[in-house]
Request: fold
Amino acid sequence: MPRINQAVIMVGGKGTRLLPLTKTKPKPALSVDDRPCLWYLLHSMKQAGINKIILACGYRSETLREEIGDGSDLGLDITYSYEDEPLGTAGAMKLVEDRLDDVFVAANGDVFADIDLSEQIDDHFRSNAMITISLIAVPNPCEFGTALVEKDGHISRFIDKPKPEEVLSNMINAGVYVVNKEVLKLVPEGEFCDFSMHIFPKVLEMGMRIQGHPLKGMWMDVGRPHDLLMANLTVAERYGMGEGTIVDSTIDGPCYAGKNTIVQKCNINNTIVSKNSQVSDSELRNVLIMRSCIVEGAHISNSILGEGCHIGKDATVLNSVLEDNTVVKPRTIINEGKTV
Reply:
């Protein structure tokens, strides 16, 4: 079976639903158990034999480059492509068309994906498809692209972000594709063009095959604060509690303490404490604490603390997402009413 050596990952989105966390970082650079969210997709690609990655960047590309680097830690060769203005998922691929192999993998980089790509690549070549899309079942397909898949695996209809009455199935586009380069002939030069909205319908109209492949592995949309917390907890449950120190504390549910982090005399439930943090004498429930935070004798629930936050004694933080370097004074109560 032929193999694929190259991938394009679209990482240009602004992640507005994750504000204020995305004031300083693009969504793919946000931490999932002390690694950028994008790292897990990159690792998945390496496991599938892909060695060359092009990151199609937009918002805060310099920060993403600082977090991801050149890929040498994963044995990858990562290069960067920059948009002057947003061109959409297909437009971003068109921009690097002259650098692409005849068949390549393309992916949306603003999701959490720790997946097995090898079978999807094999399925693409076996089915002689023009595009092979990873699919996953979700309870509410209306926020995604929904596909009608026939018995032989080919997609006969596709609707992007359908109304409830338009939903074709609960199988949605997970944003990982195997693509024949000739598809890019359908993408206009220098114009906004989206794969789901524009290219999939056009390919189907022209009678070319789009194959649907059930995704294998962990996949989560991380578009909202709650989703980001859940991705962190899922990885902690699967891969362990980290290198940090947790002493004289009660633990309930998935928990993680990063390198050089100390958690002491705390009651913790479903909580991630990223590296270089210090947390003491506190109650933490459904909490994501980014790196280099200090929490002293506080109560925090259903919340995310950005990097470098300092929460004072007897402070309470509920249902909130605090931006980087927020200082909460002792005995302060914060409740932003957000779903985290």
